From TrEMBL:
Entry-linked PANTHER family: ACYLTRANSFERASE GLAUCE, TRICHOTHECENE 3-O-ACETYLTRANSFERASE
Organism the protein comes from: Hibiscus syriacus (Rose of Sharon)
Gene Ontology MF terms: acyltransferase activity, transferring groups other than amino-acyl groups
Protein name: Protein HEADING DATE 3A-like
Leader peptide range in chain numbering: none
Family: Belongs to the plant acyltransferase family.
InterPro entries in the record: CAT-like_dom_sf, Plant_Fungal_Acyltransferase
Length: 443
């Protein structure tokens, strides 16, 4: 049965972190210096992503031994991932953002906490203090020379530890970051790469000349030359976690079956039903209801298998585009749940090879960004907690979250592989409406 955390658990706000050392890790040998082209998808995603991976104690590999092993392995990994040791720059001739693959290195920090891992509470519940487990910058370097990746190993009193990473989103999307972690685990264990990375970002270059052949209602032009990618609201926001069990999701799938037959059941995925439920609740929770208002839901779609020919699974860049579903609030309120699921499915089905190429070409002509009422960002099935390191699998892996009313996050559950946690930030009145609507859909 769905659990809604009406009051957050007691959260430790200061993990009492002591940073012992911050250094740079370089590839074993400097590679040939070159510039890496960044696609129009990469360029829009120029902001940091922070993830934390928690590990219980390991009898043969205490945290200091893991730190030494990680540092050696990261150096080795910077050969196939040479761009990760580079630096962002603007090409003086084209003005395009690119990576200068100059072997300048990545950051590496070693730290400790005064707490045991079990002391810091429910790992699933987002705790802003987890940001202390990520080293944000290398102080001895100027801002323009900051690494594209910094790894921090933080030991706990119990012998467990956290591995915190900050990476520029231009380097990886979620799928390619998972492969990076798989390769890190493989090399640390003395094995060959799990997957050889494909670093050719030209595979997602715009066509010449660019051809925008679809109306891209999910995209909007920038109104100024350099708008912030992340623009947190100044409103006071309530924050709640809605935990859906695998049984809850099964019930939603049953509710999503069209009346009069089971045609199209293949489209009734866990993601689609959870996203349709969120859309219903978010669209109808506005403080000032307007039945005629059009609500636009955004969500990411992996385009690797949708292109012709398909992109390699090993493609390291950002190969996700924003799909959308739109409807008037009146229709969202009155439509059967199956119809909402169908609209979510249609948004993903719209992402054909030609549509994706058109969206990339749109980015070549205009400076713009995804635009909608809100975005569902899913970390649910990325599998970060399935990576098998020499020191074991993570107890839990998660991003360091921030409160945004226009972004709703999906996280995996720590105990139920098919369950999901829905993280919502809304003003108090809207949150009350959202919760009431959410409850109505579940037994």
């Amino acid at each position: 049965m769905c659990t809604i955390f009406n009051d957050p658990p007691t959260l430790i706000q200061d993990l009492n972190i002591t940073v012992k050392d911050v250094s740079l890790v370089f590839p074993p040998e400097k590679s040939h210096r070159k510039s890496m082209f960044l696609s129009n998808i990469d360029r829009v995603l120029n902001f940091p992503v922070e993830t934390v991976h928690f590990f219980p104690s390991h009898s043969d590999l205490p945290p200091h031994a893991v730190a030494d092993m990680l540092k050696r392995t990261l150096s080795e990994l910077l050969v196939p991932y040479d761009f990760l040791a580079g630096r962002l720059r603007s090409n003086p001739e084209t003005g395009r953002l690119e990576i200068d693959c100059n072997s300048a290195g990545i950051g590496f920090a070693v730290a400790s906490s005064d707490y045991a891992l079990d002391d810091i509470g429910d790992l699933v519940y987002p705790n802003p203090a987890f940001g202390q487990l990520v080293c944000k910058s290398v102080d001895c370097l100027e801002q323009e020379n900051q690494p594209l990746c910094i790894v921090q190993v933080t030991s706990f009193k119990c012998g467990g530890f956290a591995m915190g990473l900050i990476t520029s989103h231009v380097t990886f999307d979620g799928l390619s970051f998972k492969i990076f972690l798989d390769n890190l685990a493989a090399l640390a264990a003395g094995k060959p790469l799990a997957v050889t990375p494909c670093n050719d970002r030209q595979l997602l270059a715009a066509r010449s000349p660019p051809c925008v052949s679809f109306p891209h209602l999910e995209l909007a032009k920038f109104h100024d030359s350099n708008p912030p990618v992340i623009d947190p609201s100044s409103e006071a926001l309530d924050f709640k976690v809605f935990r859906l069990t695998s049984d809850d999701i099964t019930n939603l799938k049953e509710k999503a079956k069209p009346s009069g037959g089971a045609h199209g059941d293949a489209r009734i995925t866990g993601f689609n039903v959870v996203t349709a439920l969120i859309w219903h609740c978010k669209a109808l929770s506005w403080d000032k209801p307007d039945p005629g208002r059009v609500s636009t839901l955004l969500y990411a779609v992996n385009i690797r298998p949708r292109l012709i020919p398909p992109l390699p699974r090993s493609y390291t860049g950002n190969a996700v585009l924003t799909a959308y579903a739109r409807a008037k609030c009146k229709d969202i309120e009155e439509a059967p749940f199956a119809k909402l699921v169908e609209l979510v499915t249609e948004g993903a089905n719209r992402m054909t090879d030609e549509y994706a190429r058109s969206a990339i070409d749109w980015g070549e002509i205009y400076q713009g960004f995804p635009d909608g009422e809100f975005l569902v960002s899913s970390w649910w099935k990325l599998g970060f907690d399935e990576v098998d390191y020499p020191w074991g699998r993570p107890r839990y892996s998660c991003p360091v979250v921030f409160q945004r009313k226009d972004i709703i996050l999906l996280f995996p559950d720590i105990d139920d592989n098919n369950g999901v946690n829905v993280l919502v930030s809304l003003p108090s009145k809207e949150m009350s409406k959202f919760e009431n609507l959410f409850r109505k859909y579940l037994p």
